[in-house]
Amino acid sequence: MTNSQLLTGQWQKFKAFVVALFSVLQPRSNRLDEVSDHQPVKVLHIITRLIIGGAQETAMLIADYIDDKVWAVDVLSGPQTGSEGSLIEEVRRRGVPLIIEPNLVREVHPLKDFIALVRLTQHIRQNHYTIVHTHSSKAGILGRWAAWLAGTPLIVHTVHGWAHHEQQHPLVRGIYILLEKLTLPITSQLIVVSPRNIEKGVKDRIGQPENYVVIRSGIELDRFGRPQVPPTQMRMALSIPIDAPVVGTVTRLSDQKAPLDFVQAAGIIAQEVPEAWFVMVGDGPLRSEVETLVEKLDLADRLILTGLRRDVPELMATFDLFVLSSLWEGLPRVLPQAMATGLPIVATAVDGNAEAVMDGVNGRLVPPGKPQQLAQTIIELLRNPSLMTSMGQAGREMVDEFGAQRMVEQLAELYKQLLHKKVSDKYPHQFSSNG
To answer: What pTM does this model have?
Structure first.
């Protein structure tokens, strides 16, 4: 038996199991006949939690920016936030309809996961969504199966960076890959934020290239590079000397982002460039470990941990150089934010980082998990201000492709293409206006 036949058999068994287990939620036929020429198309975005993060901000901006005369977008999230901070109030402030599902949690919890699947299916069915669009791994699996059980015509998932990576135990990694393989057949379209995510997915046999489309994660470009507080004033507030070179990062203090590598690099840089200062914006589960290492390396008088801040554009404007030390990524939004601010970037050469940073053009790429090499690359740039200036300018010139408006326009066009493909010529005038 070939691998393809084995996977097909696994898929058929899994689908039969789901239908049997949730017979009370027998899938309805696709509801394309419910699409009206005179009403916006109903879309539900599902995400596991609304922490301050790239996937969450993407979902929020889509719901906020997309044309509400064509698309009626709701957002559904689990209730958890955490040390990273919450976007729940920000989503509501923007007027985006938000549903909180208490059983949708990040951790594997069989009972809550079962209840969440049932409740998601009921919610999708009762509200007659034409498109369900999921984000993040947990919501991506539960949300897509709920949409299929509810008979949703179009099911879309955005990969903001695969949940499986080389740092995981092989068994855990294999389970994540298997779940994606089993869920792919009910998925109308996979969106990735970087072509490298396609390469990784295909390498792990999660579909073929035609299953994927690239839509970059967009940011509100006009918020960056135009600080509402002058950089000199912000530096004074942070007690940073006006003329000191500042190496900064905006990151989650978690294993993925490797904040301890940044601190290790800062310790090395401080020996070679004693006038340098360092700023880390963000919070997370490794906060105490970061603080301990800062003390150990005697950096407390020159490395500032700001914690969670919403004035990131103003803080970035105080930096001279932006650093991202991640071990794996999708396409981190902080890189285009740094580009829009006009900062040269030093980032690890992982996944989507290399899509935003062209080595030697708008920054430098270094291997992940190598704080010594990270430090030496930063030192080289700090000693060459003219190169830093030219790299920052190059980043500004490259950043337009990462704008939120462009992201939303591409997504609206994809929705229309998928619907036209689904309904063929049945509703030729349904989506004639721009999304």
So the answer is: 0.79
